[in-house]
From TrEMBL, chain A:
Highest taxon listed in the record's lineage: Bacteria
PANTHER family linked to this entry: ABC-TYPE MACROLIDE FAMILY EXPORT SYSTEM PERMEASE COMPONENT 2, MEMBRANE COMPONENT OF TRANSPORTER-RELATED
Organism: Olivibacter domesticus
Pfam family, one: MacB_PCD
Segments forming domain ABC3 transporter permease C-terminal: 304-418, 694-800
Membrane topology summary: Multi-pass membrane protein
UniProt lineage: Bacteria, Pseudomonadati, Bacteroidota, Sphingobacteriia, Sphingobacteriales
Record's keyword terms, sorted: Cell membrane, Membrane, Transmembrane, Transmembrane helix
One Gene Ontology CC term in the entry: plasma membrane
Compartment list: Cell membrane
InterPro entries: ABC3_permease_C, MacB_PCD, Macrolide_Exporter_MacB
Sequence ranges assigned to domain MacB-like periplasmic core in this UniProt record: 20-254
Protein name in UniProt: ABC-type antimicrobial peptide transport system, permease component
Ranges that cross the membrane: 21-43, 297-318, 345-374, 394-419, 440-463, 688-710, 740-760, 772-794
GO MF terms held by the record: transmembrane transporter activity
Automatic annotation (TrEMBL), chain B:
Domain called ABC transporter: residue spans: 2-223
SUPFAM superfamilies (alphabetical): P-loop containing nucleoside triphosphate hydrolases
Signal peptide: none
Family: Belongs to the ABC transporter superfamily. Macrolide exporter (TC 3.A.1.122) family.
One term of GO molecular function: ATP binding
Protein name: Putative ABC transport system ATP-binding protein
Record's keyword terms, sorted: ATP-binding, Nucleotide-binding, Transport
Length: 811, 224
């Protein structure tokens, strides 16, 4: 029986090649999108699933609050790690993780032989921790003695990959006892463990014993005894005992913390809480440099896109199969008359769908590498895309093939198997029983396809419009042709002045300034000041910027009133922006001139007022800014107008930089590029949406083409008669296209408000936004219509031009 | 074998109700060859479809081998059908995607006959209808008479006790028609019961008995 079904399937597939192709391609596109997205999503959800007792592991995190301004930190005060296990009941293990201050990286030196010193610059993934870390992650020991490793200062355990990087061609056992120098701190290798091969946010590859910190200068650098402050290099994980509840433990934690902290903090409220391991990968409030947060909403968005594309493919299948059902009706009638039961037929048609889906799945495996382009921005680092070696992937492929077969095949199977032999076999001609309801369903499905496509078009245009807006809007300062670079933290003033003079004299450089960051930065640098207006204290949350006397001129920031602040290393006077003056209660900005604010317990006068400029991304409101006259670690260089010469200029700048700082790398960035980077996520979303739109349009149009071919084929005789009776080509085209155009218009009417609402919601992320203009809707609708007309045109024009005698002859 | 009493069959369309069969009663004995005749629209095909359990009846009783089948559900009907009844239609009704061999094989597949046995039986019957040499052709590659012979082969491959033929020669010239009638007669001689609808007095003469219908009723029965 199976063989018989299979033969019919194959022959039908071949006989209606074009329709089969539409079905397969449509499904394959949806399937490959879903494949890639499945890999991304399952990878993100696979993080830290392997730890034993992972339900009892928590990261201690910090929440702070001041006047409704909330802050979050994944780092905690360092001394907490020393006392927490003994002081708080219910903690089975405490796992502190510290890293090198600065950029968490260290230069690693290995003395391979007498006179051969090998240096690995800026090695990442080095932590200070204890043995529990290795236990938690179930590290397998290759060499070394677990109980004694990481107990004493200056001990280190390496993963196999690092061990063989540092000591190539050396058996693990012989690596034990060797010396490794981190910056200038020498430690002994106590063990080698196998690298992890599961996805984890615990990414360290070298584990230095915790006591090393206290025995070295790191003690001060890492503020190892400071309760009232914390650096981002200090993380703390705990494993609760089975009886303990997180509520009770976090309560005790806060008691402990409050007991130790001395100073009245800047924040009115600081609260320690426990972040479950399972949430760590997704909670973007607690970001930290040592791992990457995945964004759940983005993942759900990706899933939605995959589902939509799959849905579009299924709709094509349903539409084309039911439209063509009459061609199969005779077969159904015959099969029934010779004894085929209805459920056998359902099974047969479902089997056919399964077969087609299977072909589509195979095709999708082939084309998904192409589709990866669409998702590059969303593919997490560490994810390798492989199909075969991955059992999850195979299971997913089977699952998705079966479920798509059922979603696409069930309805057609019922329609097809429902034909009654008496109706069908009567005289070879189908009596259109129930046809009108089917047609309605088909129309409904086509409308849904175009709703999805239209929705994607409108949202893509609007999102791109917003991105254009944020990138091109006047930010209140000059951002073109300005590049910035940082000098090392410990730069002395004399170097700075030297560099500045040399740069300013360089040809191709228009102007040089030196200060803090450029006017707009991603996060912002906040500070708090107090203003006494006579009756009350006003404490606005302000942004701070500083720079030398050329900063304003370079960025073309205007002084509205007063003068620039004089240069000084301590704050003696400030320039504020208009917003600042409003914030402290002045109608007219210049009224604020000469007023004093209190900053760090010091009275500081306002000597100038500058125009408002964007201090952060367009997501945030323009903040009040206070500007101080003092140099900083960032150089701002305005280049002369010819972009073609810029690379020469940057090369010369680098030369000067290297002369002064031979040890350091020269990294520069153009200010407008920095600003572009503010919106990387939006740009990635837009790129993905562009792909989704393209694919959605493509799949829907394939379906439309299939339907119109079917309809025109079944109406060739009618068209012939009409032409004989005198209809013009245009009339015929209109006749054939009218119904479809109606569907596209209905889809537009439904999609437009949905797209308006969604983009409106999305735009709420921005304080400054583009208009949701009516012309976007008009253009998108017309665009869709034109595309649909082109697709329809392919077939309708052909039919309309056909010689009527041909279609009428075979009567 | 067939005992139908007081059969009523209506067709309802949006505004009109047609009485296709009106208190019709007939008996067909095992081994008989019955021809049904009558003007176009009198209900012959409807009757045949009801006998073949392809269509249901509105009132009356239908006993097939003494079993009341009027109220059978779709599943029981298809069961009964596949083991007992073969159909031959005026317009052949072969599946275009299947070859001659595969078309004939179809009923055996549904009755779960093993593959080897199927091959043997299909070949036997193709031999019998003399179409063996065309076994791998598709229906479109055959003449009308050949197609109908395939259809007959398919109807008999399961050794049904009853063959229902609706104008089997309607689309054939007289030579081809005679061949098909010859075939049916042979089958009848071997014991198969046959009910055949026809417009041709010539073909009707092959039968044992002619039932004449008018407006959904039997008006006369002639024994040949
Ligand atoms: N599906 C249907 N819907 C409505 N009326 C029908 C249907 N099928 C048959 N009829 C009507 O029932 C009556 C009997 O039809 P039937 O097909 O049985 O006639 P017939 O005797 O086989 O005619 P012919 O010799 O032309 O094949 C006719 O009046 C026909 O119009
Ligand atoms: Mg008839």
């Amino acid at each position: 029986m199976l063989k018989n079904f299979f033969i019919v399937t194959l022959r039908n597939l071949w006989r209606y090649k074009f329709f089969s192709l539409i079905n397969i391609v449509g499904l394959a596109i949806g399937l490959s999108a879903s494949l890639v997205i499945f890999m991304i999503v399952s990878y993100e959800f696979s993080f830290d699933q392997f730890e034993s007792d992972k339900d009892r592991v928590y990261r201690i995190v910090l929440d702070m609050n001041r006047d409704g301004f909330e802050g979050h930190s994944a780092a905690v005060p360092a001394p907490l790690s020393k006392v927490v296990k003994d002081a708080v009941l219910g903690i089975e293990q405490a796992i502190p993780i510290f890293s090198f201050p600065g950029d968490t990286k260290a230069d690693v030196h290995i003395n391979r032989s007498e006179d051969k010193l090998v240096t690995f610059k800026k090695q990442e993934a080095i932590v200070f921790t204890n043995l529990d870390y290795l236990h938690l992650l179930n590290y397998r020991w290759i060499a070394g003695d677990p109980p004694t490793a990481l107990i004493q200062p200056f001990q280190v355990v390496l993963t196999q990959s690092r061990a063989s990087e540092y000591f190539p061609n050396t058996p693990a056992a012989d690596i034990i006892g060797n010396r490794v120098t981190y910056n200038d701190m020498e430690v002994t290798v106590m063990g080698v463990v196998r690298d992890l091969n599961q996805a984890s946010d615990f990414r360290a590859k070298e584990f230095i014993s915790l006591p090393t910190i206290e025995a070295s200068s790191l003690k001060g650098d890492l503020m190892f005894d400071v309760w009232d402050d914390w650096m981002s290099y200090s993380a703390l994980f705990i494993k609760l005992s089975p009886q303990a509840t997180p509520q009770q433990v976090s309560k005790e934690l806060n008691l402990l913390y409050n007991k130790h902290k001395k100073k009245e903090s800047y924040f009115s409220k600081i609260n320690l809480s426990l972040l479950p391991l399972a949430d760590m990968h997704f909670d973007n409030r607690y970001q930290s440099a040592d791992f990457r947060i995945a964004h759940k909403a983005t993942l759900y968005g990706l899933i939605a896109i995959a589902s939509f594309l799959l849905l579009l493919g299924c709709i094509n299948y349903i539409n084309l199969t039911t439209a063509q059902a009459s061609k199969r009706a005779k077969e159904v009638g015959i099969r029934k008359s010779v004894g085929g039961a209805k459920n056998q037929l359902i099974f047969q048609f479902l089997g056919e769908t399964f077969f087609i889906t299977l072909l589509a799945t195979l095709l999708s495996v082939l084309i998904s590498p192409l589709l990866l382009h669409a998702f590059t921005a969303f593919i997490p680092e560490g994810l390798t895309l492989s199909f075969l070696g991955n059992p999850e992937m195979i299971i997913y492929l089977i699952f998705v093939t079966v479920s798509v077969s059922i979603s696409a095949g069930l309805y057609p199977a019922f329609i097809l198997s429902g034909y009654k032999p008496v109706q069908v076999l009567k005289n070879q001609q189908l009596i259109s029983f129930g046809q009108s309801r089917q047609t309605l369903i088909r129309k409904g499905l086509t409308v849904s396809q175009f709703i999805i496509a239209q929705f994607f078009i409108i949202s893509t245009v609007l999102i791109s419009k917003q991105i254009y807006f944020v990138l091109h809007a006047d930010m209140g300062f000059q951002k073109e042709a300005v590049l910035t670079f940082n000098t090392p933290r410990d730069t002395v003033d004399i170097h700075r002045t030297q560099i500045k003079q040399r740069l300013a004299a360089m040809s191709g450089v228009a102007m040089v300034s030196n200060g803090f960051t450029s006017p707009a930065m991603e996060g912002g640098a906040f500070s708090n000041i107090t203003y006494q207006n006579g009756s009350e204290e006003i404490k606005p949350n302000v942004q701070v910027r500083w720079g030398d006397e050329d900063y304003f001129r370079l960025y073309q920031i205007r002084l509205i009133a007063g003068r620039q602040a004089i240069q000084s290393d301590s704050i003696t006077e400030i320039v504020v922006n208009e917003r600042f003056t409003k914030e402290i209660g002045f109608q007219r900005p210049e009224e604020a001139l000469g007023k004093f604010i209190i900053y760090n317990d010091k009275q500081v006068p306002i000597v100038g007022i500058m125009n408002d400029f964007h201090t952060q991304t367009m997501r945030a409101e323009i903040a009040p800014v206070m500007f101080q006259g003092r140099p900083g670690n960032t150089f701002h260089i305005k280049l002369q107008s010819e972009p073609s010469d810029w690379s020469k200029v940057t090369a010369s700048i680098e030369k000067i930089y290297k002369e002064v700082y031979p040890e350091d790398d020269f990294n520069y960035e153009f200010v407008d590029d920095t600003i572009k980077k503010f919106y990387e996520k939006e740009q990635a979303t837009a790129a993905l949406l562009r792909w989704a739109t393209g694919l959605a349009i493509f799949i829907s149009c394939l379906g439309l083409l299939g339907l119109v071919i079917y309809t025109t084929n079944s109406r060739t005789k009618e068209v012939g008669i009409r032409k004989v009776l005198g209809a013009t080509v245009m009339q015929i085209i209109t006749l054939l296209s009218k119904d479809f155009i109606q569907l596209v218009l209905i889809a537009f009417a439904v999609a437009a408000p949905i797209a308006w609402w969604t983009t409106h919601k999305w735009l709420e992320n921005f304080a400054y936004k583009t208009d949701i203009s009516w012309w976007v809707f008009l253009a998108s609708g017309v665009g869709m219509l034109i595309i649909a007309l082109c697709v329809l045109g392919i077939q309708t024009i052909k039919t309309a031009l056909a010689n009527p005698t041909e279609s009428l002859r075979d009567e | 074998m067939i005992k139908i009493t007081e059969l009523q069959k209506y067709y309802r369309t949006e505004e009109v109700e047609t009485v296709a069969l009106n208190s019709l009663s007939i008996d067909v004995q095992k081994g008989e060859f019955v021809a049904v005749m009558g003007p176009s629209g009198c209900g012959k095909s409807t009757l045949l479809n009801i006998i073949g359990l392809l269509d249901d009846l509105d009132e009356g009783s239908y006993k097939f081998n003494d079993i009341e089948v009027a109220k059978f559900n779709e599943r029981k009907r298809s069961d009964l059908r596949k083991h007992n009844i073969g159909f031959v239609f005026q317009s052949f009704n072969l599946i275009d995607e299947l070859t001659v061999f595969e078309n004939v094989e179809l009923p055996l597949i549904y009755t779960k006959v093993p593959a080897a046995e199927r091959k043997k039986r299909v070949e036997e019957v193709l031999e019998k209808v003399q179409i063996m040499h065309r076994r791998n052709h598709f229906p479109q590659q055959l003449s009308g008479g050949q197609q109908q012979r395939v259809a007959v082969a398919r109807a008999v491959v399961n050794n049904p006790k009853l063959i229902l033929a609706d104008e089997p020669t309607g689309n054939l010239d007289s030579n081809n028609g005679n061949e098909v009638m010859q075939l049916l007669t042979e089958l009848n001689d071997q014991g198969t019961t046959i009910v055949m609808v026809t417009h041709s007095e010539h073909d009707a003469r092959y039968s044992d008995r002619i039932i004449r219908m008018l407006d959904g009723q039997v008006v006369m029965t002639t024994v040949g």
